[in-house]
Fold this protein.
Amino acid sequence: MADTSDNPRLSKRMSELGLCSRREADRWITNGWVKVDGKVVDTLGVRVSPEARIEIDPAARAHQSGQVTILLHKPVGYVSGQAEDGYEPAIVLVRPENRWAADPSPIEFKPAHLRGLAPAGRLDIDSTGLLVLTQDGRVAKQLIGEDSSVEKEYLVRVEGTLGPEGLKRLRFGLTLDGMKLKPAEVSWQNEQQLRFVLRQGRKRQIRRMCELVGLSVTGLKRVRSGNVPLGGLPVGKWRYLRPDEKF
């Protein structure tokens, strides 16, 4: 185990290999579930060679397989993460009585499913639609990690006039916070509604993009994250992500 400053920390290397998130890696290391080149490493901060052989104890895999991901149709008026300004976090809606009656998952709800459950991406308080909440660091990394390229699709009700040049700028050419935005798919869904497909998620990005081309947003709904659609999930209801569903 080469512990030089040029080598990555073990938790970072585990994340790079897609074994787990860095937070999970820290937990696995302190639990003694990680071996490097045949030796248990239970101390945080250890650096390892990129060629090091990393082995994971089955107990870690069992813990990981027991983690859940929940899909919630967030209503307007709830914040995605921590409570703020008197508004409740969307996670308060994840209760047995709010589970979608048509949820096909056989998973039985347990209070432990709320432990460590966190939003993998934001939806503004005045936006609605698909909010992903997960205990699984791999899902979070896939959806909101630095290298994430998972598409998010939105239906956006707007007011104002948008000409061909404005539509072209929405697709590519706008800058927010001094950073040029990645190309986006933007098209008219109907006379009052635009369809956006983004591969990034800056704060209030769509609303700010629309402002830059003279539009005001009167409604915003996320209808898809990657390959997982909102579908028929009713407002305020939730369901478990199925094993066959991948973002």
